[in-house]
Amino acid sequence: MDLTARLVELNAAYARALDNEEFERWPALFAEACLYKVTTAENVARGLEAGVMYADSRAMLEDRVSALRRVNIYERQRYRHIVGLPYVMGAEGDGHRVETPFLIVRIMRDGTMSVFATGCYRDLVAANGAGALSFRERVVVCDGGRFDTLVAIPF
Prior knowledge:
The chain is 23% helix and 43% strand. The protein contains three helices and seven strands. It has helices at residues 3-19, 41-46, 58-70, and strands at residues 30-40, 53-55, 77-83, 87-92, 95-108, 113-127, 133-142. Strands 1, 2, 3, 4, 5, 6 and 7 form a seven-stranded mixed beta sheet that branches. The radius of gyration is 15 Å and the shape is globular.
């Protein structure tokens, strides 16, 4: 299978895990040592490194899922990810830099739907020991800078 097809498959698995609330499957798509960050296009343009959500290991992602399931209290909601085609920007070491556009619709418990976020995923993707692709880095760059006070579910 060519690289683009494998990237489409990885992004589809990512979106499916979050959209179907199978949050425990989400961290497995990342390398053990990884970076996951949610930020804004404005912060990126200004060189500001802080993110709305940040993790620097798969263990931190697993902890995020645990908190989501056991600790966080938030209004019931679901996401639906619409993910565009990945664009391979180039090779880096044994991986590839990739950018993929997204749109996320949020569905509230009462059925109300709204555009939650648009932007692009900026990834470093490489094959893991089994040959499957995984995220070494996923920086979620949101076009807008306004978020709810509690961002509970990963993007």
